[in-house]
Design brief:
Chain lengths: 416, 284
């Protein structure tokens, strides 16, 4: 009779043995291939989609893949991308926020009011705008938790109410122009990473990827668990470094890498860490997968819902501030029109499930690349928004269709 | 588990826990009652569980089994009566509090997140180092736990959705054991399982018992109860209706206690079927 957890019991197991720990290069490659075949395609379909879209637009218009246009693309995708990051958070817990556009509009107007009408500092303006966003998210969380109103309805109400708030803030003015010489506008229009620093940053990123991977692999190997082969990690880092350096080289041929884009990627990486490496991130997935099970496991489900909405609205507000900065104005149409649906579409195209519990921070990044590429390509072709709406809608359908197909394949191969 | 039931010695007289035995078990209930409005779901329930013992709680629908589970898992508080752990009277009002007292519950629906992998489910809500998850330690501990249970789980990285029913049951049980409880409460552990998987789960229950845990198993299945239980406590209409030594009791006697009559639908059916010749039955 051995007590649970004793080394004696641990040494006697047989049919339950963990599969022999594997560390080899071939095993790592094989594992990746097997997962892909089983329908766990990860980001592959979206990346393939981007390649197809870029090829098509490049063949229609020679300037699409030019350095100048890609620099613009890197700028333009940031506001929408930051909003889509927030959408990923609420979709993960199985909720939805239809009001992110209006919230971003309110934040943009708030920035204008604080900065221009009250002549306060940029930082205060950003802080107030983000605070307004956080407050709105908290409010959504309370209504959802206390009254059990579906988030679909709560945020639909918010969509109208905050659109009204935005118009009220701008009272009579069509737009509040932000001064061109303010740091915020310059950040969103003309601030680039110096050439050499950009290369260094990319090498740092690839080196960081390698260092994190090696550290994790070593501690797993020490614990007798399967780990990724160091050579496979090195190969991946080399490929990553090559791709990043080439991208920087290409962008540096004209204006370079915008700081705003670096900020966006930084936010993606932070959210990625939170989602994959913290208990809070895990509780987001758990609540989205099975809220009742999460509750019985001791997770504060209501708190998680509130946190997801606060994150989403704060990121939406941040996106609104960046949109105003990019335009150098907060106007009545900031955040209106298709911003809501584009942000949700970006998250979904990137592989976030509408039903909760599945998705990642990189989904927002890749999804927004798709959406913004289409928008940019159609603008270059002088096609108006009617075409853009139709085509974006079709791409969304294809993305969701692909996701469903992959999901069926996963189920068929017993990978959930 | 030796199945050396001595035929013919079955005795219907419930040896029932007398007042003198109170406090000898890990867990004991005395006079536990629960009302829902005018309905008395449980009245005056006594139950004792000793370390290294499997107590099956059986009863018909509406006998109060689920209410008992919910009281022991901390979902409901009893209206009257006492719950003692190691002879010390305790009260708890949340699943977390029950767990902290050493009573772990494996729910009938398992309460697993299908989108998360095995180790994430095992440590759900009690992750190690929540600000920088210690995956290595959690995975190591998960393997240790599953190894002790001699569970056949192919990989810890697959989402629970990819596992079979028996494997999921194992994961749910493993999760309950993570806090090193003294009593494990299993609500209908074999209800959704096939023949082989049921056997695996029963083996698992025996291993837990051999490790010195007290097990309360709520079940409908007489075969499983007789296969694994040491004692069988019968509930009928919210009251104790006898405690039997599982080795010395027949299914018919348990059924009689559950239904409250020796001449019941189950026994009538058994007699009728015994009367029909086999070939005739096959032709039908």
């Amino acid at each position: 009779m051995t007590s649970l957890g004793s080394p004696v019991a641990a040494a006697t197991g047989r049919p339950d043995e963990p599969p022999a720990a594997r560390h080899g290069f071939r095993d790592s490659v094989r594992g990746t291939v097997r997962r892909a075949r089983d329908g766990d395609l990860g980001m592959l379909p979206v990346v393939a989609g981007v390649v197809v879209i870029w090829t098509i637009f490049q063949s229609l218009n020679r300037t699409f893949l030019s350095s100048t246009n890609l620099v613009n693309l890197a700028f333009d995708m940031v506001p929408l991308g930051v909003i889509a990051l927030g959408i990923v958070c609420v979709l993960l817990v199985g909720q939805i926020d239809l009001s992110v556009g209006s919230v971003s509009g309110v934040a943009a107007a708030t920035t204008g009011v604080v900065m221009v009408r009250h002549e306060q500092s940029v930082w205060l303006a950003i802080l107030v705008a983000a605070g307004v966003g956080a407050l709105i998210g908290w409010l959504y969380g309370q209504v959802l938790n206390r009254f059990g109103v579906p988030s679909f309805v709560v945020t639909l109400g918010g969509l109208l109410a905050f659109l009204g708030t935005q118009l009220w803030l701008l009272r009579g003015q069509n737009a509040i122009n932000l001064p061109y010489d303010s740091g915020l506008v310059r950040f969103a229009q003309v601030w680039f990473v110096p050439d050499v620093a950009a290369y260094a940053l990319m090498l740092l990123a690839a080196g960081g990827f390698l260092a994190v991977g090696l550290t994790r692999a070593r501690s797993r190997r020490r614990a007798g668990l399967s780990s990724v082969s160091p050579r496979w990690l090195a190969a991946q880092s080399l490929a990553l470094a090559a791709a990043l350096l080439f991208a920087v080289y290409y962008l540096n041929r004209t204006r370079g890498v915008p700081w705003m884009f670096v900020l966006f990627v930084g936010l993606v990486l932070i959210l990625h860490y939170v989602l994959t490496r913290t208990g809070f991130g895990r509780s987001l997935y758990a609540v989205g997968g099975n809220a009742e099970a999460a509750r019985r496991a001791g997770i504060d489900v209501r708190g998680v819902y509130t946190a997801a909405f606060v994150l989403c609205s704060t990121l939406a507000a941040t996106g609104g501030v960046l949109a105003a900065a990019r335009l150098a104005a907060a106007n009545q149409s900031t955040g209106t029109s298709d911003v809501n649906l584009n942000a949700i579409a970006a998250a979904v195209i990137g592989g976030t499930s509408l039903f909760g519990g599945r998705g990642s921070a990189f989904a927002a990044l890749l999804g927004v690349v798709v959406i913004q590429s289409i928008s940019s390509g159609l603008t270059l072709l002088n096609l108006d928004s009617s075409y853009r709406f139709v085509i974006t809608g079709c791409v969304l359908l294809v993305a969701v269709g692909l996701d469903s197909a992959a999901r069926r394949s996963r189920q068929a191969h017993g990978r959930g | 588990m030796t199945s050396s039931a001595i035929p013919g010695t079955a005795s219907g007289t419930p040896p029932g826990p007398g007042p003198g035995t109170a406090g000898t078990g890990v867990l004991s209930l005395r006079g536990v009652s629960k009302q829902f409005g005018a309905v008395a779901a449980l009245s005056g329930i006594d139950l004792d569980v000793a370390a290294g013992e499997v107590v099956a709680v059986v009863g018909d629908n509406g006998a109060g089994k689920s209410t008992l589970v919910k009281i022991l898992s901390g979902v409901y508080a009893p209206d009257a009566g006492t719950v003692s752990v190691h002879g010390r009277e305790v009260s708890f009002d949340s699943p977390g509090a029950a767990h902290a007292l050493g009573i772990a519950t494996v729910y009938q629906d398992l309460a697993l997140c299908e989108n998360l992998d095995v180790k994430a489910n095992l440590f759900l809500g009690q992750e190690l180092r929540p600000w920088m998850l210690d995956d290595v330690a959690m995975e190591k501990r998960s393997w240790e736990l599953l190894r002790e249970l001699r569970a056949r789980i192919p990989s810890l990285d697959v989402p629970v959705a990819a596992l079979s029913g028996g494997q999921r049951q194992t994961v749910a049980i493993a999760r309950a054991l993570l806090g090193r409880p003294e009593v494990v409460l299993l609500d209908e552990p074999t209800a959704a399982l096939g023949v082989a998987q049921t056997a695996e789960v029963l083996n698992l229950i025996e291993r837990l018992r051999d490790n010195g845990l007290g097990i309360v198993m709520i079940s409908h299945n007489m075969e499983d109860v007789r296969a694994v239980a040491d004692r069988v406590a019968v509930l009928r209409l919210g009251r104790n209706n006898g405690v039997f030594d599982a080795r010395g009791v027949s299914s018919e006697e348990i059924v009689a206690a559950i239904t409250g009559a020796a001449d019941n639908a189950v026994s009538q059916r058994a007699t009728r079927r015994a009367a029909i010749p086999r070939e005739e039955e096959e032709q039908q």
